[in-house]
User: Fold this.
Amino acid sequence: MEGRRSGERGNANLKFLVAIVIIAGAAYAGYLYVPVALQSYKIKDLMQHNVDLAVAQGYKAEWVGQQLAKSAAEYGIPSNAQIAPVLRDNRIEVRVHFKQLIEFPGYTYEYEFDHTATSTAFLTIK
Assistant:
């Protein structure tokens, strides 16, 4: 019995080490990616808030672009971001597009943010 199991020594240690490396790599990737994803969620929420406020208060579409430009530093919007507010079908739309680099060890991921927020119809002043 002892002779058959002598070649099995260390297999559990190797599997454990491989599992720990995979889990640590996934945790580190999440550590780098999750803040960028959370930031993009906050930007989308700000965009929606601004277009709804602009329609409810009767502001022009350019006001939304100005508000997003003012909030750029606070929300992490890069200075080279494209902010395009338009008035279409009695609704205000704003499109924000930019790219952000996430640097992993040995690999750089290019996160592309491209979102269009449209004001809701029931807030439109006629």
Summary: Helices lie at 2-5, 11-57, 61-70, 72-75. The chain is about 50% helix and 25% strand. The chain has a mean pLDDT of 87. The CA atoms of residues 43 and 114 lie 11 Å apart.
